[in-house]
Amino acid sequence: MLCDPVQMLQSNYGHLLRQNFTCRNTSQPDLVTALERHEELLINPARQGHHLTHWLKFFPLEQFTVIWHNELKSAPEATLSRGFADLGVDLDFKPPIQQHARAGVSPRGGWAGQTYAWMYQTAVVKGLGPLSRRWNYATPLKIVQKLKLRQWAERVFPRQGYPTPPANLTAELRSRFSDDVTTLEQLTGRKLPEWKA
Fold first, then answer.
1. Which region holds residue 159: left if phi is over 0, alpha if psi is between -120 and 50, else beta?
2. CA–CA–CA angle 65, 68, 74 (5° rounding)
3. What are the DSSP calls for 11-37, one per residue?
4. What are the structural domain ranges in the chain?
5. What confidence tens digit (pLDDT) does each residue in 104-113 have?
6. Could you tell me the fold of the domain covering 5-107+162-195?
7. Is the pTM of this model over 0.85?
8. Residue 46 and residue 134 in contact, taking contact as beta carbons nearer than 8 Å
9. Phi-psi group of 21: left, alpha or beta (phi > 0 → left; psi -120 to 50 → alpha; rest → beta)
């Protein structure tokens, strides 16, 4: 699935916030600070032209089914049907489609942000990590899912929704991704002017 790289970066940021930036520290940086501290974790995954170029060394383009995120959001059934047809999946199969996508998050400041960061690091490093090594990954995951710890923590600690990056940052990011988007245009044959600076 291919999507606007700036939106993908925001999504990566939301996931990394949930994971406390892989427990490298106990703070929850805003987007600008996160880009300064964790550039490789945010920029590299959104370089879709680079990734597709890599995979084309091993597989011809005809073996790929390209799903565009905006099409999946606006017409999920038609987009999935096209993908299923390309993959040879039974066209009568109709998966349940979630009407509400999971929202991104923004860090809260003050005690809430610090408490979430501390709780996450403590839970992963001192709780789930040792349990995973002792039993297996599935057992601690079942405990977390049964207790709905993630849902509870996400309701209490972060703000819902992605942060809106400052206009100058969005322009800077579009400029940084411009060459990669050009590569993606060349590989897919689709013009993506809204993804460029």
1. beta
2. 130
3. HHHHHHHHTHHHHT-S----HHHHHHH
4. 5-107+162-195, 108-157
5. 666 566 677 6
6. Rossmann fold (3.40.50)
7. no
8. no
9. left
